[in-house]
Inverse folding.
């Protein structure tokens, strides 16, 4: 099954997880996956560390998802950083042999001290071009979209132009990066459609659960705005972690409802390798139940 086929008929639903840093963390994640499967997600994606770090555990995780026999598609993230033509061929062949034929093609964040990717690919456009040329329709290729513009883009318009280029080179759908600014999302979705981006858009939702993590994700990692409504939650519960988490869950549920009302092609929830909080959010939203 291709994710894009699901999106033609209804809003897709999915999760994102990340490969554990230690071997001991793998069984714990696999247990969390068993809990997430109960929501019958259309797919689960797994991140791929900078410079290919944790790639072995990434392959282990997506292989387990692909072998789960519950109609959940496995999607692997894949970055340009440190990758060569031959290395990419070897890795993609390994993914295909494991039953993983969906990929999110990314440039990836450069490790500290790096200038450039130190590989054969400088941008995600290079990776999309290579994958489509080498593998044809064997792969379903997603690309990243940034509703607030990539932090390194010259402008939002330039970022949208790059997204259009990735579509024209063979991307099948877009997976969005973090945003909490719904007015900006509405502007962006109208802008990319006006620019000729017609492929489906799968929207990433980062649950609001921890004050420090929320601020860090917005400001130190993604350059995202903290809208007034979220700023009020942060201020009111600044020294109250439990109160913040409760209010943050309500904020996340409201954001999900707003996305659904807009008419998005897919909803992609960052599960953070946990199932309890995600269960609370999804049950409260009513869009998916165990």
């Amino acid at each position: 099954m291709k994710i894009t086929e699901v999106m033609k008929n209804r809003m897709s639903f999915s999760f994102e997880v990340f490969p554990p840093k230690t071997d001991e963390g793998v069984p714990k994640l696999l247990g969390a996956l068993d809990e997430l499967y109960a929501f019958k997600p259309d797919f689960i994606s797994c991140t791929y560390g900078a410079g290919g770090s944790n790639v072995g555990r990434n392959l282990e995780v997506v292989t387990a998802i692909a072998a789960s026999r519950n109609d959940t598609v496995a999607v692997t993230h894949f970055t340009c950083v440190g990758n060569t033509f031959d290395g990419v061929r070897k890795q993609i062949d390994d993914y295909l042999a494991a039953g993983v034929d969906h990929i999110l093609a990314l440039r990836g964040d450069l490790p500290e001290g790096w200038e450039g990717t130190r590989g054969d690919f400088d941008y995600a456009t290079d990776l999309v071009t290579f994958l489509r040329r080498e593998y044809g329709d064997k792969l379903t290729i997603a690309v990243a979209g940034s509703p607030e513009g990539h932090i390194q883009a010259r402008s939002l318009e330039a970022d949208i132009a790059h997204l259009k280029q990735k579509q024209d080179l063979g991307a099948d759908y877009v997976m969005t990066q973090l945003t909490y600014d719904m007015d900006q999302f509405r502007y962006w979705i109208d802008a990319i459609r006006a620019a000729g981006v017609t492929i489906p858009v799968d929207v990433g939702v980062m649950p609001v659960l921890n004050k420090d993590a929320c601020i860090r994700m917005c400001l130190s990692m993604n350059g995202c705005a903290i809208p007034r409504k979220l700023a009020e939650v942060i201020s009111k519960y600044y020294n109250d972690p439990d109160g913040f988490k409760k209010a943050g869950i309500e904020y996340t549920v409201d954001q999900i409802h707003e996305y659904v009302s807009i008419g998005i092609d897919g909803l992609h929830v960052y599960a953070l390798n946990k199932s309890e909080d995600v269960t609370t959010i999804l049950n409260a939203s009513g869009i998916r139940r165990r």
Summary: Residues 31 and 275 are 9 Å apart (CA to CA). The first strand starts at residue 12 and ends at 17. The chain has one domain: 3-209+248-285. DSSP finds eleven helices and eight strands in the chain.
